[in-house]
Design brief:
The protein has 6 helices and 6 strands; from the N terminus they run αααββββββααα. It has 256 residues and is mainly alpha-helical. It is rod-shaped.
């Protein structure tokens, strides 16, 4: 989900290794966010549907009778509301971050490959506005041999994009691209909301998984889950029948 790699910024003698690194970086910045979206969807299914709806709000009659579990609608609804708010904040910050990454505001323009450093014009980079700036041994601003242009302070050449980037922090495939001057704020928001969302999800799952284990101690773990779904999807099959046992075998047996 990052802007396309600019292979034209490479020097004529650039190796195939650099081009391969760019392709790998671009591919991971698309694949990893898609995997994250899939994980968010699965977490939503587990927390909202399996835990809040089927276990707390509307447990089946078999579960209520055999395991002494009563509906807790207020708890289930409250958890859904909190989960939806955290997910909304996370998706909003991530969408804004991706929008900025794709608009490419922090990329420094490519220079003229025919010009040498001593012939290039520094106008437009604002070096004259500063009392001091980082320079080379000749007293000139830093120069990028790959982009054929000047590098403002804290600008770095990104090998995944093949371009110099203003105030580059790092290239993050998990976020979808380059983290730099204008994207850093939304990246920090994305990380903060992701931390809150993940912490909340783990706490909810841990609490009710531990509760389920305590309820079914001494009995196969799949039994409770099969009974939980028997009322809705069993279609006349016994809770302990082979089809249901195979269908819900992912529910592990509790430790004795």
């Amino acid at each position: 989900m990052a802007p396309p790699a600019v292979l034209g910024s490479q020097k004529p003698g650039a190796t195939d290794t650099t081009a391969m690194e760019q392709k790998i970086g671009q591919a991971t910045s698309v694949i990893l966010p898609l995997l994250e979206l899939g994980a968010l969807g699965y977490e939503t299914y587990v927390v909202v549907y399996l835990i809040c709806v089927q276990y707390l709000i509307d447990p089946s009659e078999d579960i209520q009778r055999d395991f002494d579990i009563r509906p807790r609608r207020s708890t289930g609804i409250a958890l859904i509301v909190v989960y939806a708010i955290l997910l909304l904040f996370l998706i909003t910050a991530w969408a804004r971050l991706l929008q900025l990454i794709w608009s490419k505001p922090d990329l420094i323009p490519l220079g003229d490959p025919s010009l040498e450093k001593t012939d290039a014009n520094t106008k437009g980079f604002g070096f004259d506005q500063y009392d001091a700036y980082i320079c080379d041994y000749q007293g000139l601003p830093l120069w990028c041999e790959k982009c054929h242009n000047w590098k403002p302070d804290r600008a770095h050449h990104c090998k995944e994009l093949g371009r110099c980037v203003k105030k580059m922090d790092h290239y993050c495939p998990w976020a979808g691209g380059i983290i730099a001057e204008t994207t850093h704020k939304f990246f920090m928001q994305f990380v903060a909301y992701a931390s809150l969302y993940t912490t909340f999800t783990w706490i909810v799952v841990a609490i009710f998984f531990a509760e389920r284990n305590s309820k079914v101690r001494g009995e196969a773990g799949w039994c409770m889950f099969s009974r939980l779904t028997y009322h809705r999807w069993g279609h006349g099959q016994e809770p302990g029948s082979a089809p249901l046992r195979r269908r819900f075998c992912l529910a592990s047996s509790p430790s004795q």
